[in-house]
Amino acid sequence: MFHLPITSLKAQFGDIDIYLFDQLLKGRIQKGMKLLDAGCGYGRNIQYLMQAEIKVYGVDASTEAIDRVQQLAKELAPTLPARNFVQADLEQLPFADEEFDVVLCSAVLHFARSEFHFRSMVQELWRVLKPGGMLFCRFSTTIGLEGKLQQLEGRFYRMSHGPVWFLADEALILDLEQQLGAERLEPLKTVLVEQERSMTTWVVRK
């Protein structure tokens, strides 16, 4: 029997988020689906998806990031048009309503400028998602670190590594779910990182 070397995992899957990989294993991202990575960065979460015949789109506020992702797509999935990857802000996505089967947003929402901005970004992600589609978000929260972070004004906190982040709590996430009419597909999963920050994975269906 032929066995793939374990070193091939990195080449195949890149630096995909382990919780996103879990959604692949559960069959929630399938060949032929139309998927948006909102805040795609350099494409770490879509390297494998590009090669798996997913119709991948990406937006990022950084033109450098979009240039890098367009080049990545050219190398890994030449049939994906460069126009699938565009510079844009998450609160004003350049896509039609209900366009995507899956919307990803990893390590972006805690950079919100206000609670209104945070909610606006989530509402835009929801707007472009098809009914029955999956929204996958991973972002820093206060969950598990209540009372242990340096709170500034409102929901802003000084993180131990220096920057100021907007941190949602569980109540805000629940409020958003009710407002959107979202169906939770997974329990909230929060990882504490050295008691310095917590990263919460939020997976819901429209």
From TrEMBL:
Domain Methyltransferase type per the UniProt entry, residue ranges: 36-137
Highest taxon listed in the record's lineage: Bacteria
Molecular function terms, GO-annotated: 2-polyprenyl-6-hydroxyphenol methylase activity; 3-demethylubiquinol 3-O-methyltransferase activity
Keyword Cytoplasm: no
InterPro entries (alphabetical): Methyltransf_11, SAM-dependent_MTases_sf
Top EC class of this enzyme: transferase
Keywords: Methyltransferase, S-adenosyl-L-methionine, Transferase
Listed EC numbers: 2.1.1.222, 2.1.1.64
GO BP term, pick one: methylation
Protein's name according to its UniProt entry: Class I SAM-dependent methyltransferase
Lineage: Bacteria, Pseudomonadati, Bacteroidota, Cytophagia, Cytophagales
